[in-house]
Amino acid sequence: MNIIGKVIGGLLGLLAARVPGALLGLLVGHQFDRRMASRGGTKDNRRRRSRVSSQKRQQQFFEATFAVMGHLAKADGRVSEDDIAGARDVMRRMHLGEEEAGAAMALFNQGKRPDYPIDDQVDRFNRYCGGDPQLLLMFLEVQIDVALVKGAISQAERELLGRIADRLGVGRLALLRIESALRARRRFAGDNAARQAAIDLGKAYEALGLSSAATDAEVKVAYRRLMNEHHPDKQASRGLPPALLRLAEDRTREIRAAYEAIRDNRGFR
Fold it and tell me: Does the reported pTM lie above 0.85?
């Protein structure tokens, strides 16, 4: 049953296969592809495999996002109102429909269980999305962003985030950089002056991960890099579910606003 429709474009749940069978399948598939390639008939098959792969990535990203979010909320012993508000805020920003939001909350509640197989979930997500480091960073960014709703990340949450990052092959330093960037963007987005002429340029520099001593060239490079990492078109090509693309849109608006504030202040093009 397709319970979240266009968001993940597939069924929730995974088909499990034994390793020997998977290896044999890879071998047989490889030989088949070689024969078909020699006949010039692989184009349709490649297109079909690409669609299936994209659907699985979207499915896994959606499932892991909310299940891990629930487990992280429970990391320090209890799920607070802020934790729930943070999860619902993500759903709101995604513009999830009633059915889709219900599926997301069901995953969140599953993740809250003390016996939830968090390592299995993270490993499964890594199998489907680990080939694209930007998807892994986007996933961690969503988790840290929700954890920051309370203002501070508890020690238990930090330990769990570190464990998840380790299983994804993402360094602890990357986690700190994500947190620092998110805190800066929150300050920038929450500053009323950021929408007016009297903008706090210090926060704009922080949002781009720079200091005011950065050169014009460094500002431009940082802007292009962040846009490349967060732009919805880029994320869509990586297999991010449509609903989660709306979070990427929020990020790009914040990045663009910070860049434009600095550009206008300096007067470069």
Answer: no
Q: For residue 25, tell me if it sits in a domain.
A: no
What's the rounded mean pLDDT across residues 34-56? 54
Contact 144, 157 (CB under 8 A): no
Mean pLDDT, rounded, for 167-186: 86
Interval 207-231: pLDDT, tens: 888 888 889 999 999 888 888 877 7
| Domain total of the chain | 1
Q: Structural domain of residue 224, as residue ranges? A: 52-266
Q: Is residue 109 part of a domain?
A: yes
**Residue with more model confidence, 154 or 55:** 154
142 located within any domain = yes
- Check residues 167 and 22 and name the one with the higher pLDDT: 167
Q: Give ∠ CA 224-226-229 in degrees, rounded to 5.
A: 110
Domain membership of residue 182 (yes or no) is yes
